[in-house]
């Protein structure tokens, strides 16, 4: 709740990909990559409703062929999620943020559809050894030694990249990657909106494509999430903030406390709340993706093809007490009603918890059992089912004033030729992902007659059902196991459902012979009755003797070099008056032959927009624009994007008066000279 937004380091986006069978264009699906924490039930519902409102060619897109994934960044606006538990930390539901996400996704879908053209799709893989680490290696070690011996490390380092090349001119219209790393490079004290490391990777690829003739106009780079559950971008590992020593291996604590254990990114010592580390981890993903793109373009990729080139399915499944036969050992198993364990309160080394919660906690705490009882006391059957989890929140039984967490989850998969995309609503740990993908790949050979299937995971997508670990990792009850909602058999249940519906990705004639796929029970959509405590904007007013947009202060030198910081502070107004979608709050302008041309916007990483309220009652505030003039490190792949000349900073804002009228204004900083 203390992490209240104060501005923008980078815009967040929706990037959509529309796939259609050229022989039957209605046989199609959409995959949306949102710069958000996850997919979401309400967001997906809003997108589906919007597509039906658009009608016409968009009316074909329904539950079965729309998938919505998140990059899993943790530095974007909150308040848009469907269930109560994540809403609590954001003071409830915020309609403005929710609408911006849904509308942005719909706009990106329309643009993707408008660019639909006959294309070839190729896929390749590359290993990135320095962009993630396993943040719960103690849990990973609980997996069988023989299984661990099949893999070189406890970290999924494989990036899978799809390239889309237009047949008419050979230009690349987009790329879509799947790589596993948390969007937690920015620390919990960051208050600037960013897309974190995956937002950086997409930004760098799209920025570089503007100067490369191989890429089409409006090229889109999607950096999708995968087996993210236990993979951290803070690659130097977890250390105690007070002593500088490594955190406890089992519990991620320092002297028994979780809050001092913080994992470190590659540039943790910059003192910038993780900003440069986020850029670096994003840069490493971009570099690998760009290298892989070159390899695929040179012919090393696998061309996706097949009789069933485009297929998808979707259904809903109530995970509360779902009985099934294990795909791993043939036993009759059951899931549990949703619950979070006490180690959930311990957080992770990417974002430590508070109080006396720790990870690897399977012992009951009398105080927290008392607190739990005040919310809901779990039944003995639930305690047994979730064991050894010490239940902190018995979420499956907590529906007052509405559902705290999902009981009903999305079960979905997509197919492009020999590529299968498992769409998971939960964050998947490394070994969970390996088991899931291997099982589906094996079954696809016989069920779908794919000789060499390529299987990737997209998560967390469509909804947010926290985590899923292996049964062995679950027994350790670190954060990931404590956050596995439906008990120790959740992974087996997910895999069972994927196998059950795998035939629906078959060739059209075979699918036509199958029973109609059940829609399943629909989850609640809470947007019309969610609690909301975020206050609106009352009014804005300039301080006495000033007007909106006046320059209050600015950097004093006239001459600047690369690597310098240039800033200006203006009389500002609340940015929530207008989110300036498709526009900008901030710009760097260069004087070119007497005309001021925009060369940077608030979509650029190195131009930061910060808003600070000075007086709540009077509505006075100020805005500071800061341009960190890019050196060669930040200009990577951008060509001749920085030139000697005269520049200035430009602020765009909207103010709201006491009558509710919103008016636009601008502020222009003093000119300065950039010396190259």
UniProtKB/TrEMBL annotation:
Domain Neutral/alkaline non-lysosomal ceramidase C-terminal: 514-673
Molecular function terms from GO: metal ion binding; N-acylsphingosine amidohydrolase activity
Active site per the UniProt annotation: 232
Cross-referenced Pfam families: Ceramidase_alk, Ceramidse_alk_C
Keyword vocabulary terms for this entry: Hydrolase, Lipid metabolism, Metal-binding, Sphingolipid metabolism, Zinc
Positions of Zn(2+) binding: 72, 182, 427, 467
E.C. numbers: 3.5.1.23
Biological process, per Gene Ontology: ceramide catabolic process; long-chain fatty acid biosynthetic process; sphingosine biosynthetic process
Enzyme type, top EC level: hydrolase
Catalytic activity: an N-acylsphing-4-enine + H2O = sphing-4-enine + a fatty acid
GO cellular component: extracellular region; membrane
Origin: domain of life: Eukaryota
Domain Neutral/alkaline non-lysosomal ceramidase N-terminal: 1-496
Co-factor binding comment: Binds 1 zinc ion per subunit.
Cofactor: Zn(2+)
InterPro entries per the UniProt record, alphabetical: Ceramidase_alk, NCDase_C_sf, NEUT/ALK_ceramidase_C, NEUT/ALK_ceramidase_N
Family: Belongs to the neutral ceramidase family.
Name the record gives this protein: Neutral ceramidase
